[in-house]
Design a protein that fits this description.
With 102 residues, the protein is an all-alpha fold. It has a domain of 70 residues. The longest helix has 37 residues.
């Protein structure tokens, strides 16, 4: 998440800067599954271009983590559907079995 944090700081520090605008456009494109021009990315200086590549890498990694979480949720749901419900325990208003030997 280091690149994503760096990007946030850059955008917050100078939101009107062209590089900030390009990085923001990249993030929005990734989130909305839309497009961004490669020419826009190439217009970044070397440091900001490297940051854009790091964002892409982290975003891709996070996507896999999100898929893993969805898989875990689905697996838990499937397990709950196939597990028989627990037997109800005797409630307080039902008499307990009496032991005549007592």
């Amino acid at each position: 998440m280091l690149a994503i944090k760096k990007a946030r700081k850059i955008i917050e520090a100078n939101p009107n800067d062209a590089a900030s605008q390009t990085i923001a456009a990249l993030v929005l494109a990734l989130e909305s599954a839309s497009t961004i021009s490669v020419t826009e990315l190439y217009s970044l200086d070397d440091k900001r271009f490297a940051l854009a590549l790091e964002i892409l890498d982290e975003w891709r990694l996070d996507r896999h983590y999100a898929s893993k979480l969805r898989l875990l949720d689905t697996s838990n749901l499937a397990q709950e559907l196939t597990t028989p419900p627990a037997q109800p325990t005797a409630s307080a208003d039902q008499p307990a079995s009496t032991n005549p030997a007592a």
